Amino acid sequence: AQTVTQSQPEMSVQEAETVTLSCTYDTSESDYYLFWYKQPPSRQMILVIRQEAYKQQNATENRFSVNFQKAAKSFSLKISDSQLGDAAMYFCAYRGSNYKLTFGKGTLLTVNP
Amino acid sequence: EADIYQTPRYLVIGTGKKITLECSQTMGHDKMYWYQQDPGMELHLIHYSYGVNSTEKGDLSSESTVSRIRTEHFPLTLESARPSHTSQYLCASSEGGSWSGYTFGSGTRLTVV
Q1: CB atoms B101 and A95 under 8 Å
Q2: A47 to chain B, minimum CA–CA distance in Å?
Q3: pLDDT tens, N- to C-terminus, chain B (113 residues)
């Protein structure tokens, strides 16, 4: 079974600074998808960024980018120019051949003004 | 705006009552999912469906049941609520083709007293 590990239960960053959230996963599959989701307090879970395993180029979405290291099974999220609205729980997730998403336990990000 | 709707948003109910949590999506997605989110925010898949008349139990054992009679509707039922069922329940859907991830509903926060 696939597992997703987020080793940082909590992180904090100063507004306008850069922060990196870590994620590692374990799988025997060669083709899969990886995701970062954001869940603000009492609000809906939304997709931040996704990465297809067969693509070597790291995905970017505005201030959000990933560092995907397939051999190391590592998938970190970098948030640049952090904003107060970035404060949320961030979940790393894996999807293999069965379409089910396996989530990590989450990292709570605090943004300090 | 969310294309997947969960009702009610909050529910407080007495032990032994039967409840149904509603989930509907307007995107025509064939795959739908129910996750239970514990107080530590960890997400556990409890049910999923890959199409009409198809339902499967997820990775976490649950006393709830689901049905999928229509593509857009995936309700979750608890026949006899107990305090141990107190949790947040998240519904999600996904399409089967080029995979863009799950779309989540806003969740139902259930409290059984």
Answers
A1: yes
A2: 8
A3: 558 999 999 999 999 999 999 999 999 999 999 999 988 888 999 999 999 999 999 988 888 999 999 999 999 999 999 999 999 999 999 986 657 788 999 999 999 99
- Across chain B, mean pLDDT equals 92
Q: How far apart are CA A14 and CA A112, in angstroms?
A: 5
Contact residues on chain A for B105, CB-CB shorter than 8 A: 44
Q: CA-nearest residue of chain A to B39?
A: A105
Neighbours of A113 (CB within 10 A): 6
- Contact residues, B window 25-44, toward A, CB-based 8 Å cutoff: 31, 33, 40-43
